[in-house]
Amino acid sequence: GQNIDQPTEMTATEGAIVQINCTYQTSGFNGLFWYQQHAGEAPTFLSYNVLDGLEEKGRFSSFLSRSKGYSYLLLKELQMKDSASYLCAVPSGGSYIPTFGRGTSLIVHP
Amino acid sequence: EAQVTQNPRYLITVTGKKLTVTCSQNMNHEYMSWYRQDPGLGLRQIYYSMNVEVTDKGDVPEGYKVSRKEKRNFPLILESPSPNQTSLYFCASSPQRGRITDTQYFGPGTRLTVL
Q1: Is residue A7 less than 8 Å (CB to CB) from chain B?
Q2: Burial profile A56-95: b = 16 or more Cβ within 10 angstroms, e = fewer
Q3: What are the residues whose beta carbons fall under 8 Å from the beta carbon of B89, sequence distance 6 or more?
Q4: What is the Cβ-side half-sphere exposure of residue A87, based on CA atoms within 13 angstroms?
């Protein structure tokens, strides 16, 4: 089975830091993905976590706690172009094919 | 350039008129899939294929068909479209083989309206 929960919408100010949370329940864990999707465009890969801890990639970092079924995406030094939907995806039930959460719409304002 | 292409990008059709949305990838990926995306519901998988001649249902397969006769192509067929199939459709591919989770590369999307 599979259940992924993310906030529907968040707002933040340009230059600030924002944390987007994702909680999941799955009977077998094979990693967690974060994708970015601008309105009307295709999702693009941001990060993949399979071990606990923080993975940093420029302004974006992703954290995973397998014991808590929890991940977050941290965006620093926010820019207007970061306004997008952020999708958490987890392979379900021991498979290797990700199921997507409903996404978090991030609005960055000046 | 490595990419996933879809055609058409936009389509308006009428109920019951069969249509096919093509998807092609030039990365020699074994895994391909189709998603639909609707407001408030996120990305939902329709069908996927682990390799040539191997296809499986995703979460919302009703009203859709697929085929995988060649590795690069994975067309989505709507035999008798209905208005509730109005949606944004994405094709994706991945180098994933068997027991390895890998990132997916998405096509640009096809916006379908069924009147």
Answers
A1: no
A2: eeeebbbbbeeeebebbbebeebeeebbbbbbbbbbbeee
A3: B6, B21, B34, B35, B36, B37, B46, B76, B109, B110, B111, B112
A4: 24
DSSP state of A68: T
Write down the residue that tokens 């068909």 correspond to. B65
Q: How far apart are CA A89 and CA A62, in angstroms?
A: 13
A34, closest residue in chain B (CA to CA):
B103
| Per-residue pLDDT tens digits for B15-29 | 999 999 999 999 999
In eight-state DSSP terms, residue B97 is -
**Interface residue A49 vs chain B (CB under 8 A):** no
What pLDDT shows up at residue A1?
Answer: 44
Report d(CA B80, CA B45) in Å as an integer: 19
